[in-house]
Amino acid sequence: MRFFYSLQKLFHAISQWHQRRRCIVDLNNMPDYLLADIGIARHEIADTVNNLPTKSRIEDTIHAGGKPVLVAGKQAVATSGI
Question: Are 48 and 55 in contact (CB under 8 A)?
Answer without folding.
Answer: no
